[in-house]
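Schema walk-through. Below, the input block comes first and the output block second. Nothing else is stored per chain. Lengths vary across the set, and this one has 115 residues.
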Amino acid sequence: MSVSKSITKDGKKVTVTFYIKKEAAQGAKKIFLICEHNGWEPVALKPQKNGTFRGSISVPTDIQPSYQYRFKYIMENDEVKFDNDWDAESYCQNPFAGDNSVFTVAPKVKAAAAK
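--- output ---
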């Protein structure tokens, strides 16, 4: 599992891409991202031919100087399982006696003008 981020040229949004390796998918037929950026509404990750899953979301950077978003994966096969990203930036407690994965979004920092 991994999360990568790329900021738009204007610095107002970050595209966050979630990638789940085949072994981390644990045989799931469907995987959904749930994240506080959109009120915990599930976002389907697309299965790839090689057994991995991938998906992206767009997150604004102009809400505040820096923000940490909590997220988790829902993995569906014969049963439903919630799982964290094994390589998340960090983790935080959730109200259900477990942890959530965390990624941080910050605006693009402009380089200081040369003197």
